[in-house]
């Protein structure tokens, strides 16, 4: 990347370490290397996964997610370009899993009941940002509907099957189950995306979650449960499923997103701005 293009990336960085996630700081400088090396300009890049959820193990990888902008000449052509850029591996002794989508693809996902993209937009663990990222947060609020509950129910079911089939069972999928259900319940009640399990549990006060998070924070990524009370966890899983379904039925959130025009307008402006910068 040229120095000029680097200077055009506006990032929220004070030169200090990023916020703690669980008990681990995010290495801002090392994360920014991957932003600078990205083949396309980024609208934003944030941290997702277990660091966002509040229970990273010491050996957890860093899930770097974001939105990139393909050149105008590319999207006008027949090939369409790289809608998704993926990179994973160990860099500077850190395991990195990077996935970004072109703005058009990402915005279309926002208009579906996709909870992942909302969590990426609203993640407080910001590696790189722009004024358009802030605008996107405002627009994203109009993408939230009561039917996002189906995303959370589906993801919980997938993680529960993963947890249930393993022997011995692992801590991580169990935490993912409870995290996504509590996120869904909170979303249905408030319309606010909250992905951090420790924060969610301040209201829920489920003591077993504190213990599970402690095991995950202090143990390896693939830590197993020393003594899994499967009957208890299954009863909690079913209870929280029922709670989310109840919140879905009583939720006052909209039936449909109302942000399509705003997203279209933002996409056009981003494309034109990127083209003007490239033409200078």
What does this structure look like?
The structure is a single chain. With 280 residues, this protein is an alpha+beta fold. It is built from 13 helices and 7 strands. It has a 5-stranded mixed beta sheet with strand order 5-6-4-3-7, with helices on both faces. A hairpin with a 2-residue loop joins strand 1 and strand 2. The radius of gyration is 20 Å and the shape is globular.
Properties at a glance:
280 residues; alpha+beta; five-stranded mixed sheet; two-stranded antiparallel ribbon; 13 helices; globular; disordered N terminus
List the helices and strands and how they pair.
Layout: H1 3-7, E1 20-21, E2 24-25, H2 28-37, E3 42-48, H3 49-53, E4 62-68, H4 72-75, E5 84-91, E6 94-102, H5 103-110, H6 115-122, E7 126-128, H7 131-140, H8 148-165, H9 171-190, H10 197-204, H11 207-218, H12 230-250, H13 260-279
Parallel strand pairs: 4-6
Antiparallel strand pairs: 1-2, 3-4, 3-7, 5-6
Helix pairs in contact: 7-13, 8-9, 8-12, 9-10, 9-11, 9-12
